[in-house]
Amino acid sequence: MQAAATIKMTNLEQIKEAIAAKMDSASFTSWIAPLQFDICGDNLILTAQNQFSADFIGSVHQNVLSSVAAQFGLNVSLCVRGVTATTTSIANDNNVQAYAPVKTAQVTTSTGFDSFVCCDENAFVLSACKKIAAGSVSFSPLFIYGASGCGKSLLTDCIESSANGRTVKMSGGQFVAEFTRSLHDRTIFAFKDFCRNCDTFILDDVQALAGKRATCEEFAQLVMDLRAAGKNIVLTANVAPNNLNGFDRRLQSLLASGLVADVAAPNTNVKRVMLMRSGVSSDVAEAISARIAGDGHLVGGVAMKIKTYTELMGQTVTMDVAQHLLADTLQKAKTPIAMVKSMCEKLGVAYDAVCGKGRCRAVVLARQMMMAVLKEATNLSLTEIGRVCGDRDHATVVYAISQIEKLKNTDLVLAAQINQLVADCK
To answer: What are the pLDDT digits (tens) for 68-95?
Structure first.
């Protein structure tokens, strides 16, 4: 009896080694290793911890398992561990401990898409978010990217509050922590079930997964499973998928396989509306909106400061009070020279070269762009613009502006760059 048991265990180890040789290590560790192996007659019986695991392994890894079993003269049978089955505790056994996410205190002020103040640049991404909240879409995953404070998290809150069916929403850091905790608590399969048992899955700040190989592998498999099941996926990050650091090319390609849309920073009108919605008087909001950086978090902080001052002091915040109260936040009025120096930094040219006699192609183009921007963003006369850009005469300024106008009609990248410089100068 003991000799037979030893031979059986040896065969099982050989079968496991043969399967591992035909699969990548991550898939074997996540899916095959936790299975209970047994041989009964001519059958290799593989027992999974839950039905989801059995279904997934049967659909994805059936060919590998069958080919290896055939080498040993066996057939493969997949089954699910019952409640009364063996009580031996093994890794990832959901019968040992069920998974439940750690509850975190989250303050969500969004009551729907009306809470997102939309500008023309963000109309497309807002429409995509409304579509995905209304039901199943064909462009999943929706990947939203933009700088901090442009409204990515607010959009995900709007989707969560408006979406039909069950929604699972996590931050990137929370996903990493929950995945690690489920491995430690041996509830990884229950964690997988929790993430997949939804109609809409939202992950905010994908860049938090950077450099964490095991977490990225699990996340990639999650995205593929959800998409195959026709579920909606919404992802956000601070940069586009191809610019994510710490992600391999395969995962970058997967994240970019759906709809990729950027969110523009709040413009002056959006900031004014945000301030007025927070209770700031219209005249004060109108006056200070142009002097606040394009960051939604900063606008919210300004509104909170004004509201708190009104409640504590019992006084209405006038423009004079606002300037004193927000002296550390409001930007000072930009001088033309300061604008030129700022544009030099953004265009990667030296200020001395722009205002000097340099005639190289890059410097000339940058100088012409600055003249066109100053013409559109300020009330300076052409003579004053020429003086700021190195004492150029009136005719030079006219020629530079006309050249840029021609280039804008054919070069969309340059046109977008000009528009951004104009917005920064206003």
So the answer is: 888 888 888 888 876 333 333 333 444 4
